């Protein structure tokens, strides 16, 4: 424990002003938020204490009281990575190791990762001697810890010390890494697999061939697919390190096996890393091996894999890929979303005739796809097609797709389609909109999900900006105002939110004559939430109104609300009064 | 010790009492009213398109052949049932699918009724048939934002066969002739590992069968018990710290509930570690509501076994107490009440201070369901008796929150409850109560003063930082 009294040994007079006990009290405060604030300003505390007392008093305290909320620990782990100057420079940087070592063993992943990150950072500030005397033993302790957390942390530290230690220590490090690659906890094997590529990069080529390849092969055939898929990532780095002539024997058998793994997650990884893999193994192997594998991935039975593969299509030469795109359509029932988003972009590259011939049938088919994401992706990229062939070609197929998305059971899907409404309205024109889409837009206003109602409100505003105030007055405003009498208070509030959004676009005339009376009437609503939203609305639409309406109509109502029995109503009424020019 | 099916009645009932009371003017509809899209079904991820139709040669019924030929025919039928069909293609192999279905049905009946069917050669064939059918890579989840509370689960397309395979396997495991000593050659660690991975299935019907299967295996194969526990450990740790996604957590916890029940005393270090390092952190997961009842049941089981674990458990819950999710807070409060129901007074004393500091925060939560749930503790006679015994410690902790919200809380129901609690405290210890009332104001002022001092301290520190930063010899903290 740290004692404050009589330890002010530093020559700097400031120190006595800040006894460590006071500072440590701050770090121990019962309120987490205050504790967190103090930890975030740990550098200030260290500065007040001076380097020596930071080393001898503050750091031991931090090491001993490591049990805290993860959020505090995270802040601490981050701070310590920048502490080298505050403990007296590189010469003393090893003082930071004990607290970081404890932090590297906690359960919470983000804390541990941050501790490892800080350890990696300060490892560079160690002299080669200190690295062997202080840092490397810490890595070894972590690597042989009882609980999986310390062993997973160790995996991230091997590569930073390896290049700077003697060959005997190097051999030990390689041995530790080997052990962790076959740890019986999958969490540790995953950590090791994810650092395999990084570790390979710092190893001498001979050891890459002798050690890394066997570890790579073992991890790539692990019993858990979560480990196997990480080996695919490592494959990229490893392949880059090896000379071309060794790739075929050392890497390719494993990679081929991964492309046909029984778990879709592993195949997904191959598809996802395809561009990197291609670069790493060079053109010859790509042509003979990877392209056929890639074709299979495009036809994979899992949509996720196809999507990942399809995402890589855009970068390829089109004349090669076009047949594939068609192939997918015929061999598979559902072409998935990623491809959908990519092929829409292709239309600009292909030009009008090619688009109509090759892509239009695909677009139409995809608008009927069973997966909502596919349909959404087509609709969201309509502008590309519009530029090339005009939207009319699609409008007949578009409508059913839009209607179905608008009623999808998942609110995020509904939200996505709402966001495209203004774009669609602009491209389809006001007539088509009134006839087919207006009812949808109004129905969203009474959706049971707030985010949808909110988006619907915002959508109306954008539509009015597009189609004008007169259109608003005829088609939208009456319906919006009608909802003010709805028995559900959430719907009544929606009226207010719509008015907030629309008043400016609709202008003074409509706002004063049609909207204001409704708002004022609602100030008598029995639900307090509605009443304080009336106050907020009045504040919002005030600038659109003329002075007469403000003085004679708005002011008395706000004054009444300002003496409401509900605290919040009062608050917002007073706020409105102070903001609006009512005096 | 191994009950029929693990069943946590108390945990369930407590979950029911915590359901939120519905406000009259509440305009929110609880569930989606939209027509749910027709349930999608999905098949395992293993099918590549099969080109040729599958042919199985029909075999005679087992009951139609002489008894001595039955074991041989049984084996043949098991081999036939290893053939797996593609159920996503609803039109292919209809006849053969039906044939396999009726064969599986026959096998189920056969292992239930027949005697002397289980030759040693049958074991590997049974395990092979089950493995071929049930072990498969589960397909990707419908979408990343799959919400188990809101969305319909994806159902397994091959269920017409799969169900019968599970049914058959359970009957096999439960059969009187079943000998674990022979079966353990085939039902090994690798088998169990694959079985556990299946608990991630989105289909609740499958998870239910898996629960029974795993329970039986745990009961009959003593050599696999430690391994099973360890693997469940790993699944949970991965769930908590890596993916936050695993569909079968509730089912696994249910099995654990009855496993814990059977632990011998004193508890092994391994089991205590499981409680503290795995079960407690499970509380942090976002989807806690899906398995909280089962989790709370396991926790209480542990505490009933070994009351000295109360302190670490409660400290763990306090450490992970939800900061922003009121729904979870209500669940924590419910679980805490279950723990307090069985707490020993000696343990209570050890933990009362940090515990009531948290309860005091909950009582003054602006979310009325949280405040209400915490205030309900005062309706619990046992808890009341514990509070009464320790009122000199608890009252000072609770007083300022209670006093403040009795004046400030927006919800009249909460204010009424708080009055009752204050009244109860007054009756318990009127002298202390009066002292606290008298000193309330000066305490607040002292707090404010402290607050100010803190601000000043930090201001000075910052000035110093600036000063030192300016004249620094390289000491410019980042």
UniProtKB/TrEMBL annotation, chain A:
HEAT repeats: 19-57, 96-134, 173-211, 212-250, 251-289, 290-313, 359-397, 398-436, 476-514, 515-553, 554-583
Domain called Phosphatase PP2A regulatory subunit A/Splicing factor 3B subunit 1-like HEAT repeat: residue spans: 283-351
Residue ranges that the Swiss-Prot or TrEMBL entry lists as coiled coil: none
InterPro entries cross-referenced by the UniProt entry: 2AA_helical, ARM-like, ARM-type_fold, HEAT, HEAT_type_2, PP2A/SF3B1-like_HEAT, PP2A_Regulatory_Subunit_A
This protein's GO CC annotations: cytosol; nucleus; protein phosphatase type 2A complex
GO molecular function: protein phosphatase regulator activity
Keyword set, alphabetical order: Repeat
Domain called Phosphatase 2A Regulatory Subunit A helical: residue spans: 96-277
Family: Belongs to the phosphatase 2A regulatory subunit A family.
Short name of any one Pfam family annotated for the protein: PPP2R1A-like_HEAT
Protein name according to UniProt: Serine/threonine-protein phosphatase 2A 65 kDa regulatory subunit A beta isoform
TrEMBL record, chain B:
Gene Ontology cellular-component terms listed: cytosol; nucleus; protein phosphatase type 2A complex
One GO term (biological process): signal transduction
Stored Gene3D superfamilies: Leucine-rich Repeat Variant (1.25.10.10)
InterPro entries registered for this protein in UniProt: ARM-like (IPR011989), ARM-type_fold (IPR016024), PP2A_B56 (IPR002554)
Pfam families listed in its UniProt record: B56
Superkingdom classification of source: Eukaryota
Biased composition (Basic residues): 31-40
Gene name, Swiss-Prot/TrEMBL: ppp2r5eb
Stated family: Belongs to the phosphatase 2A regulatory subunit B56 family.
Protein name: Serine/threonine protein phosphatase 2A regulatory subunit
Molecular-function GO terms, alphabetical: protein phosphatase activator activity
Stretches the record annotates as Disordered: 1-52
């Amino acid at each position: 424990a740290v004692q404050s009294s009589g330890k002010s040994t530093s020559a700097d007079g400031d120190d006595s002003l800040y006894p460590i006990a006071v500072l440590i009290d701050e770090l121990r405060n019962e309120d987490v938020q205050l504790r967190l604030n103090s930890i975030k300003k740990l550098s200030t505390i260290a500065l007040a204490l001076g380097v020596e007392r930071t080393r001898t008093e503050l750091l031991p305290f931090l090491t001993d009281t490591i049990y805290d909320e993860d959020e505090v620990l995270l802040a601490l782990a981050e701070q310590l990575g920048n502490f080298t100057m505050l403990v007296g420079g590189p010469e003393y940087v090893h003082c930071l190791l004990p607290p970081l070592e404890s932090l590297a063993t906690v359960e919470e992943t983000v804390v541990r990762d941050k501790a490892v990150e800080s350890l990696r950072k300060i490892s560079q500030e160690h002299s080669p001697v200190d690295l062997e005397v202080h840092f490397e033993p810490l890595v070894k302790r972590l690597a042989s810890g009882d609980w999986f957390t310390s062993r997973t942390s160790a995996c991230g530290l091997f590569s930073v010390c390896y290049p700077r230690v003697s060959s005997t220590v190097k051999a030990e490090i390689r041995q530790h890494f080997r052990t962790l690659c076959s740890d019986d906890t999958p969490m540790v094997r995953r950590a090791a697999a994810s650092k395999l590529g990084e570790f390979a990069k710092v190893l001498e080529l001979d050891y890459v061939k002798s050690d890394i390849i066997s570890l790579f092969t073992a991890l790539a055939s692990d019993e858990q697919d979560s480990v196997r898929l990480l080996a695919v990532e490592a494959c990229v780095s490893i392949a880059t390190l090896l000379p071309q002539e060794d790739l075929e024997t050392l890497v390719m058998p494993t990679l081929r096996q991964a492309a046909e793994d029984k778990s879709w997650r592993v195949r997904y990884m191959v598809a996802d890393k395809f561009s990197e893999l291609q670069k790493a193994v060079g053109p010859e192997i790509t042509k003979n091996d990877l392209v056929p594998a890639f074709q299979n991935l495009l036809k994979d039975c899992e949509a996720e894999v196809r999507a990942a593969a399809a995402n890589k299509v855009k970068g390829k030469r089109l004349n090669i890929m076009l047949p594939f795109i068609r192939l997918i359509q015929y061999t598979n029932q559902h072409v998935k979303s990623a491809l959908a988003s990519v092929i829409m972009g292709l239309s600009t590259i292909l030009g009008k005739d090619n688009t109509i011939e090759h892509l239009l049938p695909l677009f139409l088919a995809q608008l009927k796809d069973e997966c909502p994401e596919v349909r959404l992706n087509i609709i969201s990229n309509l502008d590309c097609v519009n530029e090339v062939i005009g939207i009319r070609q699609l409008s007949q197929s578009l409508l059913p797709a839009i209607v179905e998305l608008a009623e999808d059971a998942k609110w995020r899907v509904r939200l996505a389609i709402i966001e495209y409404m203004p774009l669609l309205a602009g491209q389809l024109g006001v007539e088509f909109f009134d006839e087919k889409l207006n009812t949808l837009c109004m129905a969203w206003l009474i959706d049971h999900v707030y985010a949808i109602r909110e988006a619907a409100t915002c959508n109306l505003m954008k539509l009015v900006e597009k189609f004008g105030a007169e259109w608003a007055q005829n088609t939208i405003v009456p319906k919006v105002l009608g909802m003010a009498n709805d028995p559900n208070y959430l719907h009544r509030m929606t009226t207010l939110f719509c008015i907030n959004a629309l008043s400016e676009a609709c202008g003074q005339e409509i706002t004063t004559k049609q909207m204001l009376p409704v708002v004022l009437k609602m100030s008598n609503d029995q639900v307090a939430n509605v009443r304080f939203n009336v106050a907020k609305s009045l504040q919002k639409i005030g600038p659109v109104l003329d002075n007469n309406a403000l003085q004679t109509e708005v002011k008395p109502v706000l004054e009444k609300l300002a003496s409401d029995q509900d605290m919040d109503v009062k608050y917002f009424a007073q706020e409105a009064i102070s903001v609006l020019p009512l005096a | 010790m191994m009950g029929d099916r693990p069943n946590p009645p108390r945990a369930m009932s407590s979950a029911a009492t915590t359901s939120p009371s519905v406000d009259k003017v509440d305009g929110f509809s609880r569930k989606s009213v939209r027509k749910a899209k027709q349930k999608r079904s999905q098949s395992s991820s293993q099918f590549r398109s099969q080109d040729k139709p599958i042919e199985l040669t029909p075999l005679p019924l087992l009951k139609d052949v002489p008894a001595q030929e039955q074991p041989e025919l049984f084996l043949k039928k098991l081999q036939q049932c290893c053939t797996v069909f593609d159920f996503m293609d609803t039109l292919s192999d209809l006849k053969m699918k039906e044939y396999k279905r009726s064969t599986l049905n026959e096998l189920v009946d056969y292992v239930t009724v027949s005697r002397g069917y289980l030759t040693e050669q049958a074991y590997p064939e049974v395990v092979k048939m089950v493995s071929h059918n049930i072990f498969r890579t589960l397909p990707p989840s419908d979408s990343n934002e799959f919400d188990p509370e809101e969305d319909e689960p994806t159902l397994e397309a091959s269920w017409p066969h799969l169900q019968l395979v599970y049914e058959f396997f359970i009957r096999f495991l439960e059969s009187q002739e079943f000998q674990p000593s022979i079966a353990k050659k085939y039902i090994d660690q690798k088998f169990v590992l694959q079985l556990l991975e299946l608990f991630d299935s989105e289909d609740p019907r499958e998870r239910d069968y898996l629960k029974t299967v795993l329970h039986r295996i745990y009961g009959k194969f003593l050599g696999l018990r430690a391994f099973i526990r360890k693997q469940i450990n790993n699944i949970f740790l991965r769930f908590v710290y890596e993916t936050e996604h695993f569909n079968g957590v509730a089912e696994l916890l249910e099995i654990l509930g009855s496993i814990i029940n059977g632990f011998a005393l004193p508890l092994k270090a391994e089991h205590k570690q499981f409680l503290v390092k795995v079960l407690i952190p499970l509380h942090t997961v976002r989807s806690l509501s899906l398995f909280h009842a089962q989790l709370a049941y396991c926790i209480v089981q542990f505490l009933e076994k070994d009351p000295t674990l109360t302190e670490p458990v409660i400290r763990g819950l306090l450490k992970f107490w939800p900061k922003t999710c009121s729904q979870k807070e209500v669940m924590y409060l419910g679980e805490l009440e279950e723990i307090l129901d069985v707490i020993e007074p000696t343990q209570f004393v050890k933990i009362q201070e940090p515990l009531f500091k948290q309860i005091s925060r909950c009582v003054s939560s602006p979310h009325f369901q949280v405040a209400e749930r915490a205030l309900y503790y005062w309706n619990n006679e046992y808890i009341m008796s514990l509070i009464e015994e320790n009122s000199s410690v608890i009252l000072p902790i609770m007083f300022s929150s209670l006093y403040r919200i009795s004046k400030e809380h927006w919800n009249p129901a909460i204010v009424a409850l708080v009055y009752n609690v204050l009244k109860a405290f007054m009756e318990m210890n009127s002298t202390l109560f009066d002292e606290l009332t008298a000193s309330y104001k000066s305490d607040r002022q002292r707090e404010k003063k402290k607050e100010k001092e803190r601000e000043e301290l930090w201001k000075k520190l910052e000035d110093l930082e600036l000063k030192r930063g300016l004249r620094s010899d390289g000491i410019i903290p980042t």
